[in-house]
C-alpha cells in the first residue's frame, strides 16, 4: 500500500524509499498539468521486484488509481502473477471522472467532457485519449475484475472499456459481531445527545458532488415541525448545519478516525441518511443496516440494491429534496416503521454482508484464478 | 538564651501592584496578605496608563513605583513608518538600554529595604529582562512567579521573531536560576519542574470561604436563562462562537430568552442585540460572586482553542474559575480538552465541557444545562464542593508560604491535602 494508517505487520508500504512520496507529489503535479492521471508513476513496475510480489501466489489490486501507480504497469504485472482487480468505483470505465453522475459519455468513449472539474479534474479535455488508453490497458491486462454490486456490473456491461471482461460480483463484508444492534443510550450519553430526541445520522460532505449532503440540508429546511425533537448527528464535516441551531440539536463530530466513536455514531442514530448521488457500493449503508438502523437513500445508485429498497431502505427519487424530506418526516413520526425496517435491515445484512462470507467468496475466487 | 530567627524581607518585583481593580492585582494582594507586612516591600514597574486602586489594609507595605517602558512593538513611531526591521531594531535597543536603569533602581531600593529574597512576577519581556540581574545584584535568592507563558505575551505584544527568541531564552535561563517558582496551575508547575529543575508550586487565586454562595441548584426563572461572563475577552474567538450560536438560535434556548451578563472593564467585542446584554462594568470580587449567584443561571468560561495559544491553554488557569465556583453556579466551559481548567473541571464534575469551538457545540452545552435539571443540579453542587476543596484562602496560603520559603520541607509541585491534583 502507498499510505499505511495501521500498525499491522500484515501490510507493507510499497516503494518505501527516502523521498519517494515527495517525488510522487511532483509527478502528480506534472500529471495535473498534462491532464492525465495514473500514468507517470513508473514505480509501479518496481512492484515486481518486491519480495511480497515475488512470494505471492496471487496479486489482488485494489485502489490503484489514487495517483501512485501507473496503470501502464498493469498488463506486465498481471502477466507475472494470477491477478484480481477490484473496481471500487467506475473510474476505470471513464475518461477522467470517478463518478460520471448523469453524464452517459463513458458509454461512447468520452471526449467533449461536460464536467472536467469532477475528480480527478482535467485542465484540458483529454478524456477521449484517456479513455482509449484505459481501454487498451484493461484489454491487455489479465486480471479478474471484481465489483461489489450488481449496479457496478450493469455499468460494466454497458462500458466499452469493460467489454469482453468477465466481471464477478462480490459484495464487501463487515464484522457482524462488532456491527450489531446495541442499547443506544450509553452512546447517546457519550456523544451528548439531549434526552428524548430522535437522532438523524448524516455524513456532512459539504464539498462532495457525490454524497448528496446539499439535499439533506434542503430536506431539513422543508421538514415541518413534527413535534418530535430532533438531533442531527453529523460526521466528516463541521458547521454545515449551523442554520438549524436552536431548531434541532446539531452534533458535529467532524472527521472521525477512532473506531469507538464511529460505533457510537451508528449506535446513537435512529435514522441514517445516505442520499448519495453516486455510489458503487456504500460501506456505511451496510454498517447502519447491521446496527438495525433504517436508512434513506436516493434511487439511481448502488444503494437501493445494497440496502434492500424498498422493503428495508427507503429510496426516494434522485435529487428530490422534497421527497427526501417527506421520507424523513414519515420515519420520524413512526417509531414502529423505524423498528420494523431496522430489524429487517439486520437480517438483510446477516444474509449478505458477513465478513466471513465475503472472505469465503474471495478465497473461492482466488483459488479459481490461481488455477487458470 | 533563645536566638530570634533572622528577619526576612521579601522584595516583590511586579508590574501590577496589589490592587482591587485589576485581576492580577487582586491575586497579588491575596498573596501579600499571607505575609507579615513588615517582611514585604514592593518595587513596581508599572504601565503608566494603569490606575490601580490600592487596598487600605495593605498600606503598610513599602512600595516604590517606576514607569514601565512600552512593550507593544509598533511599526510606526512618532508618525514615521519603521517597518518590521525598524521595530525589531528599536526593540533590540530597548532590551539593552532600558533595563539597566530599572535594574539599578530596583537594586538600590532592595538594598535600602534590606531585601533577603526576590519574588519576581515574570509578566512580560521587561520583567523577564530585569528579574535575574536584580537578584544577582542584591545577592538574594530568586523566586519567580508565572501567570502565563511568556510566549503568549510576546505574541499579544507583536514582538519580532529575533527579540522573541532572545526573550524566551532569557525566560528559560531565569527559571533555571530560580530557587522556587509559583505557577498558575499544577500542569505548569510540573512542566517547569521537569524542564528547569526549579521546585514549583501551583498558586491559584482563591477566595475567602465566607464569600461562597449556595443558591438553589436550579434555573432562576421559567422564561429566561442568564449567562454570566467575568473578566477580559482573551478567548475572543470562543466568545464570538457563543454569540454566533445565540444569533442563529435567535437568542433562545427552547422557550427561554437568553441574556448575557458581563463583568469587567471591557465591553464585549461583539454586537449583541438590545435586551440580550447586561454590561455590569467592573465590580469588586465579592459583589461579582453575589451577583452571579443571585442573577446568573450559568457561568461561561471560554478558553483558547487556537494552536498558537496551546501553551497558554495547557499551562495557565483562568482566575474566573474560582469566582464562578464560589458563586455556586454550574460552569459552561468552552475550551480544548488538553487545557488545565478542562482537566480540573472534568475531575471535579463542576462544568459542562464543550471541547469543540464551533457554535453547535457551545449551544449544545447550554441546552444540556437548561433542559436537563438533574445535570444542572449535579453540576452546581459539584461546583460548590470544588470551591471548598480547592480554592479557599487556607489552601492558597499554604501554597504561597511554600513558594516563598516559609514552610519548607514540602515537596515542590505538591498540592495541599485534599486539593485536586489537576489544579
Describe the model:
- The complex is a heterodimer of chains A (372) and B (423).
- Chain A is α/β, with parallel strands linked by helices.
- Chain A folds into two domains: 20-173 and 356-370, no CATH class; 184-353, Rossmann fold, CATH 3.40.50.
- Helices cover 37% and strands 11% of the residues of chain A.
- Chain A has 13 helices and ten strands.
- In chain A, helix 4 links the parallel strand 2 and strand 3 (143-147).
- In chain A, helix 9 (283-290) crosses helix 12 (335-352).
- The longest helix of chain A has 18 residues, at 335-352.
- The two termini of chain A are 26 Å apart.
- The model of chain A has no long low-confidence stretch (mean pLDDT 96).
- Chain B has 423 residues and is α/β, with parallel strands linked by helices.
- Chain B folds into two domains: 10-178, Rossmann fold; 209-390, Glycogen Phosphorylase B (Rossmann fold).
- Helix content of chain B is 42%, strand content 17%.
- Chain B is built from 14 helices and 16 strands.
- Chain B has helices at 23-32, 83-113, 125-138, 150-156, 161-177, 186-196, 236-248, 285-295, 310-315, 320-327, 340-348, 359-371, 373-390, 393-403, and strands spanning 10-14, 40-46, 62-67, 76-77, 80-81, 117-121, 142-145, 180-183, 200-202, 224-230, 252-253, 256-263, 277-281, 298-302, 331-334, 351-354.
- Chain B has a seven-stranded parallel sheet with strand order 3-2-1-6-7-8-9, sandwiched between helices. In chain B, strands 10, 11, 12, 13, 14, 15 and 16 form a seven-stranded mixed sheet that branches.
- In chain B, helix 2 packs parallel to helix 3, helix 3 runs parallel beside helix 5 and helix 7 crosses helix 12.
- Chain B is globular, with a radius of gyration of 22 Å.
- The N and C termini of chain B lie far apart (45 Å).
- The relative contact order of chain B is 0.12.
- The model of chain B is unreliable at 410-414 (pLDDT under 50).
- The interface between A and B is medium-sized, with 16 and 18 residues.
Amino acid at each position: 500500500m502507498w499510505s499505511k494508517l495501521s500498525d499491522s505487520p500484515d501490510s507493507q508500504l510499497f516503494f518505501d524509499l527516502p523521498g519517494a512520496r515527495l517525488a510522487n507529489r511532483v509527478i502528480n503535479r506534472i500529471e495535473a498539468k498534462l491532464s492525465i492521471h495514473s500514468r507517470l508513476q513508473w514505480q509501479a513496475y518496481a512492484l515486481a521486484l518486491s519480495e511480497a510480489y515475488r512470494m505471492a501466489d496471487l496479486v489482488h489490486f485494489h485502489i490503484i488509481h489514487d495517483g501512485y501507480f501507473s496503470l501502464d504497469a498493469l498488463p506486465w504485472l498481471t502477466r507475472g502473477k494470477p491477478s484480481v482487480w477490484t473496481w471500487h468505483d467506475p473510474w476505470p470505465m471513464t475518461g477522467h471522472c470517478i463518478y460520471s453522475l448523469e453524464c452517459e459519455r463513458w458509454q461512447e468513449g468520452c471526449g467533449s467532457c461536460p464536467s472536467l472539474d469532477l475528480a480527478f479534474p482535467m485542465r484540458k479535455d483529454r478524456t477521449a485519449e484517456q479513455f482509449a488508453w484505459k481501454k487498451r490497458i484493461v484489454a491487455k491486462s489479465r486480471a479478474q475484475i471484481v465489483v461489489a454490486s450488481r449496479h457496478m456490473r450493469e455499468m460494466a456491461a454497458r462500458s466499452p472499456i469493460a467489454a469482453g471482461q468477465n466481471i464477478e460480483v462480490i459484495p464487501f463484508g463487515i464484522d457482524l459481531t462488532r456491527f450489531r444492534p446495541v442499547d443506544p443510550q450509553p452512546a447517546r450519553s457519550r456523544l451528548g445527545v439531549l434526552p428524548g430526541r430522535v437522532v438523524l445520522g448524516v455524513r456532512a460532505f459539504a464539498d462532495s458532488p457525490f454524497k448528496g449532503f446539499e439535499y439533506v440540508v434542503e430536506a431539513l429546511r422543508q421538514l415541518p415541525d413534527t413535534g418530535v425533537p430532533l438531533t442531527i448527528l453529523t460526521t466528516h464535516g463541521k458547521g454545515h448545519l449551523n442554520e438549524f441551531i436552536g431548531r434541532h440539536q446539531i452534533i458535529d463530530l467532524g472527521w472521525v478516525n477512532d473506531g469507538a466513536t464511529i460505533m457510537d455514531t451508528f449506535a446513537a442514530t435512529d435514522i441514517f441518511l445516505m442520499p448519495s448521488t453516486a455510489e458503487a457500493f456504500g460501506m456505511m449503508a451496510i454498517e447502519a443496516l447491521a446496527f438495525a438502523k433504517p436508512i434513506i437513500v436516493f434511487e439511481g445508485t448502488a444503494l437501493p440494491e445494497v440496502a434492500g429498497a424498498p422493503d428495508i431502505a427507503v429510496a426516494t427519487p434522485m435529487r428530490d429534496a422534497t421527497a427526501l424530506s417527506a421520507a424523513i418526516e414519515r420515519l420520524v413520526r413512526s417509531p414502529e416503521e423505524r423498528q420494523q425496517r431496522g430489524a429487517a435491515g439486520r437480517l438483510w445484512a446477516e444474509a449478505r454482508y458477513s465478513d466471513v462470507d465475503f472472505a469465503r467468496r474471495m478465497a473461492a475466487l482466488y483459488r479459481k484464478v490461481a488455477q487458470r | 538564651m533563645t536566638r530570634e530567627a533572622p528577619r526576612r524581607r521579601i522584595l516583590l518585583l511586579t508590574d501590577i501592584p496589589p490592587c482591587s481593580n485589576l485581576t492580577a492585582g487582586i491575586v497579588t494582594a491575596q498573596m501579600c496578605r499571607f505575609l507579615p507586612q513588615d517582611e514585604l516591600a514592593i518595587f513596581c514597574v508599572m504601565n503608566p496608563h494603569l490606575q490601580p486602586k490600592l487596598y487600605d489594609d495593605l498600606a503598610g507595605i513599602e512600595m516604590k513605583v517606576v514607569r514601565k517602558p512600552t512593550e507593544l512593538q509598533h511599526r510606526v513611531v512618532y508618525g514615521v513608518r519603521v517597518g518590521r526591521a525598524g521595530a525589531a531594531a528599536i526593540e533590540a535597543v530597548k532590551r539593552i538600554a532600558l533595563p539597566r536603569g530599572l535594574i539599578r533602581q530596583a537594586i538600590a531600593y532592595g538594598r535600602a529595604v534590606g531585601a533577603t529574597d526576590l519574588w519576581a512576577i515574570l509578566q512580560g519581556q521587561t520583567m523577564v529582562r530585569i528579574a535575574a540581574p536584580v537578584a544577582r545584584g542584591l545577592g538574594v535568592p530568586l523566586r519567580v512567579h508565572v501567570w502565563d507563558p511568556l510566549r503568549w505575551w510576546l505574541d499579544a505584544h507583536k514582538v519580532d521573531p529575533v527579540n522573541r527568541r532572545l526573550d524566551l531564552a532569557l525566560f528559560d535561563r531565569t527559571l533555571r536560576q530560580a530557587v522556587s517558582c509559583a505557577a498558575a496551575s499544577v500542569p505548569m508547575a510540573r512542566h517547569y519542574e521537569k524542564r528547569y529543575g526549579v521546585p514549583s508550586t501551583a498558586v491559584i487565586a482563591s477566595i475567602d470561604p465566607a464569600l461562597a454562595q449556595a443558591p438553589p441548584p436550579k434555573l432562576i426563572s421559567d422564561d429566561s436563562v442568564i449567562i454570566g461572563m467575568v473578566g477580559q475577552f482573551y478567548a475572543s474567538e470562543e466568545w464570538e462562537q457563543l454569540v454566533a450560536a445565540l444569533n442563529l438560535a435567535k437568542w433562545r434556548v427552547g422557550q427561554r430568552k437568553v441574556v448575557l451578563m458581563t463583568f469587567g472593564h471591557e465591553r464585549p467585542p461583539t454586537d449583541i442585540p438590545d435586551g440580550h446584554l447586561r454590561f455590569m462594568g467592573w465590580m469588586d470580587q465579592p459583589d461579582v460572586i453575589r451577583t452571579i449567584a443571585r442573577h446568573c443561571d450559568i457561568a461561561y468560561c471560554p478558553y483558547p482553542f487556537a494552536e498558537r495559544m496551546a501553551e497558554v491553554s495547557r499551562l495557565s488557569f483562568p482566575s474566573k474559575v474560582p469566582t464562578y465556583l464560589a458563586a455556586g453556579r454550574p460552569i459552561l466551559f468552552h475550551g480544548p480538552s488538553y487545557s488545565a481548567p478542562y482537566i480540573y473541571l472534568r475531575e471535579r464534575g463542576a462544568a459542562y465541557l464543550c471541547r469543540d469551538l464551533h457554535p453547535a457545540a457551545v449551544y449544545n452545552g447550554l441546552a444540556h444545562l437548561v433542559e436537563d435539571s438533574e445535570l444542572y443540579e449535579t453540576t452546581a453542587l459539584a461546583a460548590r464542593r470544588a470551591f471548598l476543596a480547592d480554592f479557599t484562602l487556607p489552601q492558597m496560603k499554604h501554597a504561597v508560604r511554600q513558594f516563598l520559603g516559609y514552610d519548607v520541607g514540602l515537596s515542590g509541585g505538591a498540592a495541599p491535602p485534599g486539593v485536586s491534583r489537576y489544579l
